[in-house]
Amino acid sequence: MNPSIEIMPSCTVTYMRRIGPYGPENRRLMEKFKGWLDANNLLEQKSSIFGIAQDNPLLTAPEACRYDVCLIVPQGFITDDKEVKLRGMSGGKYAVFKITHTAEAVQRAWDEVFLVFDAFGFKLDKTRPVLERYSMELVERHCCELCVPVR
């Protein structure tokens, strides 16, 4: 796992959220969100969808864990859909790990990524969540990225 370093700007995202145990339902939410994006002509070849586990399942009861799927939108974007909301997403420095886009590989990355932090001299920034980034370009090549906030 060789990460690159990336500085992401703060931005506005549109998102859908589910609350409950992390797992297969997150994928269903992603598919629902992609359908909404497609129906609203928001999905482009250069788009990246983010999956954000908002809670640490070691500290939060499974039934209270929040998972968001997001897309960066221009400032001033408006939606009247009750299932889709808007909010800001913090920017900053991230260690970006490119991984295979399978449920098993993503889970393995979540399990292993923090083990390599010391080797690279990273310090986790616990004030920001880890991002799963699904760019259309990488997904077509069966890859995605795990973006871990560092300081």
What does this structure look like?
This protein is α+β, with helices and mostly antiparallel strands and 151 residues long. Helix content is 23%, strand content 36%. It contains 4 helices and 8 strands, in the order ββαββββααβαβ. The protein has helices spanning 24-39, 103-112, 117-120, 136-140, and strands spanning 4-8, 11-19, 48-53, 66-73, 85-89, 92-100, 131-135, 143-149. An 8-stranded antiparallel beta sheet has the order 1-6-8-7-3-4-2-5. The radius of gyration is 15 Å and the shape is globular.
Summarize the structure.
The protein has 151 residues and is of the alpha+beta class.
Topology of helices and strands:
Elements lengths: L3 E5 L2 E9 L4 H16 L8 E6 L12 E8 L11 E5 L2 E9 L2 H10 L4 H4 L10 E5 H5 L2 E7 L2
Antiparallel strand pairs: 1-6, 2-4, 2-5, 3-4, 3-7, 6-8, 7-8
In round numbers, the mean pLDDT is 92
Which oligomeric state applies? single chain
Through-space gap between termini: 19 Å
Number of strands: 8
**Which regions contain 5 or more consecutive residues with pLDDT less than 50?**
none
**Strand residues, percent:** 35-45%
Which secondary-structure class do the elements indicate? alpha+beta
Helix content: 10-25%
Using only C-alpha atoms, the radius of gyration works out to: 15 Å
Spatial arrangement of strands, main beta sheet: 1-6-8-7-3-4-2-5
Q: Outline, from the CA principal axes?
A: globular
Number of helices: 4
